[in-house]
Amino acid sequence: MALTLRKGEKPADPHADRVLDIVRGGLQDQITDVVTSSWIRCLNDYHLRPDKPHDPNVIGRGPLEERRERHAAVIESARYEMTTLYQQLADSEMAVLLTDTDGVILHMVSSPEFAAEVGPLGLRAGGIWSETEAGTNGMGTCLAAAGPVTVCREDHFYTQFTQLTCSAVPVFDPTGNIVAALDVTSRSSLMQQHLLVLLSMTARMIENRLIDRQFRNAHPLHFHSRPEFVYTLHEGKLAVDDDGRILAANRSAMFQLGLQSMDQIRSRRIEDLFQTSLADMLQRSASSSFHPVVTYGTDAALRFFAVARRPASAADAMAGSSSAISSSSSSSGGSSLAPMARAKARPAAVRAGATACTFEDPRLEEQLAIGRRVIARGTPVLVCGETGAGKEVFARALHDGSPRAPGPFVAINCASLPEALIESELFGYCAGAFTGAQRSGRRGKVLQADGGTLFLDEIADMPLELQSRLLRVLDERRVTPLGTEESHAVEFQLISASHRYLPALVREGKFREDLYYRLAGIEVQLPPLRERSDRLELIRALLAAEGGPDASLSPEAERLLMAHAWPGNIRQLRHVLRTAAALADGKPITRVHLPAMAVNLQPASGMNGERVDTTAPAAASAAAPGSVRDAHGDNAPGCAKLNLIQANERQLLLQMLEQHRWNVSNVAKALDVSRNTLYRKIHKLQIEVSHPEQES
Fold it and tell me: 3-state SS of 546-581?
């Protein structure tokens, strides 16, 4: 085996020595075949040396912008999902990264502090992380192996990267080719399998967005062998042209149809796969109000539930035509009831990814009844409640029970958009209104809501100058897009929401008083999840939505879920159940699939082997000097702040401490880290340390 080092020559550091010994076959080590194969490629094919310091290679601003322009569709499809994943993991020492197929980082989501720390390593926009450039690493090895990869610390080829752990998955374009790598890089080395599950789910969401974006002129066809999985992440998705020919498919569609590559499906017709046609599917889907309808595979052995829809571009054109008619009718003295008549003529579509909900809590039932009574008269409704309490789900329920239910429900989160984009999102713009604008212009959310309901979430985050424009639209019922003086008549039901107390913001001068009174025709208050009497029904409904009707909870798992404080409310519950269902993979969900819940009740033992009840206050249990004990109860705020990955790390670390009879020195040796490093990790994971300086 030809190596880059001369015979007898030894590298300068132990890590490089280990790499060479393993490649030569002289050392047995517990590393994956993927890592070993990568090290062999790095040494023999790329002629890299592990003992030679690696100078990061970062392309210039000009070439980077050219790459970003070429991959604009991928970046735009991934941007929101990357931010969501970063917020879900909530680790300040972590970055979510997207590279192109050359390993060049195109987009990065991270805290400024972590970005500053890892920037000198080349972990920043423009950094090249292909295997040929950076050796074995998450992004480059994922692209080289064309599959999910975890490269944990010493698995890296170069010594300077051994402080990091990288997990990466490929992202496929609608033609079935790898178009990017999605990566999470952190200082953690534990629970990467759970992280790979979350990364894979995020990659699938990006891939579905790519299909929607690239084939706006095609008919989307959603299907699954189980009806509850249609409109979810697990659905099969096809893009079909007007003649019924298949243009693209996602990975779930390929798997369900038993196909291995896009070449086996591209340009085939729907009739080649299902016992139906596009025209038949469109007609039956519309007749069922876009609930899934039954169809069969061509061999009649497989039954599917499917929904076909009109192309997104056609729907936009229809909405634009409708808006033009509305403006014309208004200017010519037409009836103000025209938008309502048009809305009733449109079929009520089932929302993609609609959230399962239950309103069996008496307080919630009362608020819903009040809201529906006033919304029937066109009164604006302000929905108040904690973050994640289900304000948008509640608003959709109000819309579905209102006279405008046949019309569109258009939601916009004022907190999730950059301030510069809120105005164009709300009011739209004409062609050439500003640099970067779409050539054809864009209809704003207000015009899209014509004849239906406009839901403004986190209204408190709307800039003051835009508040005055919104107030004028509400008063005049006309909207003027950016870049034009032409206004359009619009009619919609307004629902807004905020987790902040608007009267206090009014007093502080941060929110217009006249707008507040215009929005709050009536205020409804949503109880937080921890106070709802229908928690169990909601847990079961969400579990069925996220994991299917076969998903089940063990009694212990159900008890843990019911006892948890849920500071993130329904949003947090949905994420936990979605991940648990994926980890359980069809089996009953148990404590091990709910690490974020289980660690709060995880029993620990002291140095002398006695059990310590971690649900009791810290002062209730004395610990021996130098021992470690879990001092957080079930509702302790500290534990509630741990994200999923940290919670899993905490559970594993507690297990290791138990195995080593809570001797920190022995655990540090087992993890191959210094005691100081381990103590920092213990403190970060909120495990109390008693007098570490006295440890023997």
Answer: HHCCCCCECHHHHHHHHHCCCCCHHHHHHHHHHHHH
